[in-house]
Design brief:
- This protein is mainly alpha-helical.
- It has one domain (about 5-210).
- It has 7 helices and 3 strands, in the order αααβαβαααβ.
- Helix 1 (about 5-20) runs antiparallel to helix 2 (about 25-45).
- It is globular.
């Protein structure tokens, strides 16, 4: 079993907790703390990728299913409102998907501080690219209304396997989706922060850009 914690990681996480619980703080400093923590955890975990492979697969499948639900729901809502004669072309819908708001129950590390640490990691001030959720760019209608689900999730790109930074041979057949890559490569999450997530939160907002 991979050891996910050591003295140095513990000290960094303690500093994160202190800063988060005593805001305001310097967000650039927070970004550095999360980046350092991510590098330390990933350096340890990625040396034993075969041990976390089942959770990578389960997370990727769960995230794809959540995004499918968000995509279909956004289209249903858009189709029901787009003919509104009062607002016409002045409406815009945005759909966003986030990791569950609660600390993952499946994570191997469970203690009284993990919930607060999870809030800090998911704070868009600390983790700026996460502000709009797991997809880049955000699903927006009408501009993206004709784009396919495969386009949203990057499965239209040959080969459909966003496994940069992972063992290429071990993960070659996983069909990872692009949002997995965003979380893993571009944001300040360590891989073990999110691969144990099975619950997701979606937000669909409608904005009317018209002076009444």
């Amino acid at each position: 079993m991979i050891e996910l914690q050591d003295h140095d990681i513990h000290l960094i996480e303690r500093e994160i907790l202190l800063k988060y619980e005593h805001a305001p703080c310097d967000y650039s400093d927070c970004d550095c703390l999360l980046s350092l923590r991510k590098a330390m955890i990933n350096g340890r975990v990625l040396a034993h990728q075969e041990e976390i492979l089942p959770d990578i697969i389960a997370f990727n499948d769960a995230l794809r299913e959540a995004l499918r639900g968000m995509y279909d729901r956004a289209h249903r809502i858009w189709n029901s409102i787009k003919e509104n004669k009062t607002f016409g072309d002045h409406m815009e819908l945005t759909a966003k998907c986030y990791l569950g708001y609660d600390y993952p129950a499946l994570h191997p590390l469970q203690d009284e501080n993990r919930g607060v640490l999870w809030l800090a990691i998911c704070d868009s001030g600390w983790n700026p690219l996460y502000e709009d959720g797991v997809t880049l760019p955000t699903l927006t209608f009408p501009s993206n209304v004709d784009e396919s689900f495969d386009y949203l999730t990057g499965l239209d790109c040959p080969p459909p396997n966003w496994n940069e930074g992972l063992d290429q041979e071990l993960t070659k057949d996983l069909h990872l989706i692009q949002p997995f890559h965003h979380l893993f490569d571009h944001m300040n999450f360590a891989i073990t922060d999110f691969i144990y997530v099975r619950q997701f939160e979606t937000e669909i907002n409608i904005e009317i850009n018209k002076s009444l």
